Structures are given as C-alpha cells and as structure tokens.
Fold this sequence. Notes:
CATH superfamily: Peptidase/esterase 'gauge' domain
Helix content: under 10%
Number of helices: 1
CATH architecture: 7 Propeller
Strand order of the largest sheet: 1-7-6-5-4
Strand content: over 45%
Distance between the termini: 48 Å
Radius of gyration: 19 Å
Amino acid sequence: xxxxxxxxxxxxxxxxxxxxxxxxxxxxxxxxxxxxxxxxxxxxxxxxxxxxxxxxxxxxxxxxxxxxxxxxxxxxxxxxxxxxxxxxxxxxxxxxxxxxxxxxxxxxxxxxxxxxxxxxxxxxxxxxxxxxxxxxxxxxxxxxxxxxxxxxxxxxxxxxxxxxxxxxxxxxxxxxxxxxxxxxxxxxxxxxxxxxxxxxxxxxxxxxxxxxxxxxxxxxxxxxxxxxxxxxxxxxxxxxxxxxxxxxxxxxxxxxxxxxxxxxxxxxxxxxxxxxxxxxxxxxxxxxxxxxxxxxxxxxxxxxxxxxxxxxxxxxxxxxxxxxxxxxxxxxxxxxxxxxxxxxxxxxxxxxxxx
Length: 355
C-alpha cells in the first residue's frame, strides 16, 4: 500500500499547518504591483500580459495563496512576526488573520459566498478540517481515529453549495477521501487500494483527487457515488488537483520517470508538457479549460516558474522582481491567477492580473 501523506491534499503548501478559533483583525495589504517587462529567467516577470502583485505577510517572511473565488477573495497562509503560521483571507484590500488555537493554521479553499475551508491544529495537537463563516470557525470532525496514523482531518476544497472535501484518518487506520455535507462526513472509498485523498470539488458536485490502487496511485473523479480512475501518462502514478466544468488537471508520471502536468477532458488525458525543463505540475483550472501550475524552464536546472496554459500554449508567468522561482495554484473565472513567488525578502503570496 502506498501511503498518502496529509500534505499531499493541501497542494504541498506545508507539511504541518494547523488552526483553531478565529478572531479576525485587518492588516494593510501590500500592493506593490510591477509591470512585467523583461526576461523571467533573470528573475523579472515575463511579458505575458499579466501584472504581478505581492500580497504581503502577517509580519513573517513567508506567505502563500492557495485559492481564489469569483469575487477575487483569496485564501492561503502566512507566517506571523512571532513565527507562527496562520490561515489568511485577502478581501477587499485587507489581509484578515483567521487566527489559531495553537500555533498553526492554513486556508485551502473559498466558496463564491466567502466561506473558507482549511485545516487546523487543536490545543491537543490534533489536525482538524474547518469551515470558517463570518469570523466563526467550525470543526467539521473526521472519519475516525487511526491507532497509528493519528486522529486528524483536513479540508482541501469547497463548492458553491457549501460541500467540503478533503482527507481524514479512519478507524481502520488508513487515510481516506471525504465529502462533508450538512454535518455528515462521507468516506468516498478507493480505487482498490487502502488510502485516498480528495483535493477539489466543482459546482456539479464532482470530486477529484487520488487513490491507492493495487499497483500505485491514480487520479480519480468521483460523481454520483462512483469513483473512476483517470489513468496515467504511461507511468505508474497520477494525482488530480482541480476540477471545473468537466476539466480535470493534475500531475502524472511518464514512463521515463519525470512528471508532467495533465489536462483530462471527455475521457482523454493530455500531456501539457513543460516550459523547457523536465517536470511540471498543474494545480488549478478554469471553466474555460485554462490551466495554471508550475514547470521547470531549463533542462538540468530544477527551478520552477508559474505557468498559464491556454489554447495549447504554456506561458511563463514569471516571478517577483529579484525572485528566482514561482508557483501558480488557482485561477478565477476572470483569469486572475494566485500563487507564490520567491523574492529577496522571502516567499510571498502573489496575484497575477491580466493587463
């Protein structure tokens, strides 16, 4: 059995990020917007028709953006001046600290109405999936308590109807994908293996993620109570990270052992290639089939840049000035892209806006 770690659910933003009750306060949003006018490989954003904005931090040297809703509200994570990690919501020019019972929290998804989901650490050092509405955070529980893997859950996504998906420990000591609706958490099962993880859900209630199989790990789509494998790109593994309007994206391993971003639609998995390097990953997709993610841009140089793929072309979104790498995690219906970029001051959550 291939073990599914909790960090895989959460777009690999951090290994151990937690949360608790929210007491919101507002901080000024850093709005240093830079014109993209140069070669991205020199650490300057490329001329792609996008402006890049540093979203700032809660006083620490690290932040990341994980999701954006149609209204432009962004959620993610930031270090504080004390070195703690908190979930954050960027809304209408404010950075709102979602708070924490312990030291850590992270927000992973936001609905069109502004409901935020994520995962948190309780005072008893147990990770829990949460739903945050109007300043109040609710623990939505877990599927069970495994003797060896612990007693935890984490939410990864939410749709317009308020249905939440993620991953949780179970009583049989395996991590499973879950769907939470109206106070009830449902185990979505597997593709024949023992573990699974749900990473996203769309407006139609279709869930994507990855599951253990008899031979490895495979991306899945779950709808109407049935989990279906999406296949691979010829290798032994794949995982799905986002779904919208019938489009599914993620990453799959090729026979050569490198991994590439994929776009799955109407039963066909398409290799999206790279920006010139060996590896790429897809993390977000719009209803129009536009894909965002990260890709190495030179063979032998394992530094990734954020990309936007549309109409068969992968575009380098570049970095903050002076930065080396970047990562795009989600895209809004209007084409706004969120993610993170290294800068001389550390990693920063960023927003790319079409000019």
